[in-house]
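Give me a protein, keeping tokens residue-aligned:
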Amino acid sequence: MGIRLLVLGGGGREHTMVWKLAQSATIDDLFCAPGNPGTASLATNVELDPADPEAVRNWAEDNAIDLVVIGPEDPLAAGMGNKLRAAGIPCLGPDKGAARIESSKIWAKRLMVENGVPTAAFEVFDDVDEAIEYLARIEYPAVVKADGLARGKGVVVARDFGVAEEAVRRMMTERVFGEAGAQILVEECLVGEELSAFAIADGEMYKMLPFARDYKQIGDGDLGPNTGGMGSYSPVALPDDAFAQTIEKTVFEPILRALAESGNPYQGFLYAGLMLTAEGVKVIEFNARLGDPETQAILPLLGGDFADTAYLAARGRLAEANLEIISGSSCCVVMASEGYPADYETGFPIEGLGDVGDDLLVFQAGTSVRNEELVTSGGRVLAVVGLGDDLENARIRAYGALETVSFEGAYYRADIGAAEQNGVGGGNA
């Protein structure tokens, strides 16, 4: 007998998860809340607020759900994992205490320092004047971060005092990110190549997923403001096999051990944003879930039964899972609305999705259906993923699809995966 599985979320990451889970022979019924038009073709969309723990628990109980996979960060920060596990419903996603690794950058930084995990030097402020006085006497560039959840946009790489001061006032005085900006961090600006590292953990052990590289800035060459992510590729060439083991030993093992020792054993996906500096690997930040759009690049490279792996991890039995990493490469290019990440218009028809080839995947994020027509409804609209034997072929296929898929005002970066050196960051973003 198969399992009944619910995915929480409605973006491109969740569409990718549903696509991968739908391939599993272990699933009888697959649901997504709230889902999007893309998930609707693979699963049953459910009108539930994914950040309402009580409503989700009640629905899961009423519908005999065997496993809940949590996609975005808001449900985790709201204690979704706690509520589901208390009801005896297996859940892939950490409890609220462990999810602080993402919901509070200050808490996460202190946890890193206490456990010897290499990271950028930092100072914490809850007073605007003190923060600005500090900014007036430091060297630049520097990085200003909101403490709480800000949908990937609460980070500013300040090249001078003026930019830093403006960022602080927007976060702490204007509260553009709400209470997430009540406290801030000012960090040294790390320089090097960025790397996204992921693991799936069951509370006691973990398994690594393919490495990826993410592109946060809106413009080619990593210019312009941060976004939720404009593209990614996987895998990433590392100096040698020992390098990956170093990341495990210096980043994942100590953090997961520290969380368990503090009474917050970690079950779910753990993301580490890394900077490969001249002094070695340093952690930019942790996320308590899979990244977006890295998910769209990584999941197509996983073999084995993904639903079975998720189910076993949620039950503390990850050692039994047959998780494989297959050969090949993927390149993900995000198609965004003109004007994103600032103001943008929506409601434009999306054309060409039915004409993409078998070696291409298109995952929906900011879409909706109007008068039986698929239209844009968000800033990041689609993620187009090319697959190939190597990165060059995957990239050619992804960008080739952009000649077919279209909507008015569509914008995308032209340099995703252009070279292994792309994605170099100087910004702890």
